[in-house]
Specification:
Layout (H helix, E strand, L loop, with lengths): L8 H20 L2 H10 L3 H13 L2 H29 L7 H5 L5 H19 L7 H8 L2 H12 L3 H28 L6 H24 L1
Amino acid sequence: MIDNSSPDQMFFLMVILSVMMATFGLLQGSAPVIIGSMLIAPVLYPVLSLAMGFVMSDSPVIGRSFRTLGRSVMYALIASVLVTIFFSVGEPINEEIIYFAEPSLISVAIAIIAGLAASFALIKPELDATLPGVAISVSLVPPLGVIGIGIAKASWVLISSSVLLFVINVLGIVFASMILFSSMNFYAKRKVAESEIKIDNEKIEKEKLVEREV
């Protein structure tokens, strides 16, 4: 989980590419393109690591997850706004965009079930193949695309409703994952998590030094 949520350049590049793809899919009203964007998006991992940090009461894990998620959202919104401005600022709002701007009680249930499925799949490596399906079901990336479209079109309705859906999804995943991680006694792995984060941070710093030298 820590490796997959590592806040390095490749992680944020995949976030930007996935949101750009989702935004194009939303503007075109193309469900297959939107689904493809959800498959390549890594945003699910920092949300899961945030839940892990809460269960462990580990401030380094929590802080790292918040920073990674916050930067992901920032880059995603910039990418979505730019795509909309340059390619479709004057186009009407289609059904696909409206779909990801309509939070409901069912959205809460889906987020909780997806959170349970994702965290269980991480605990059981043989279930890793199910994670792409979880990423599709929970819809973290399309709401970010809709927020960017709403900003570009100056639509407060789109912005507020898609922000609500994104927050619902994040909170649902965190809540469900905390329940499962607590039942698996993740608190006992706190030192392991801190050690892994230290190793990952050192790796990121080395990559930065290499880039500066180049």
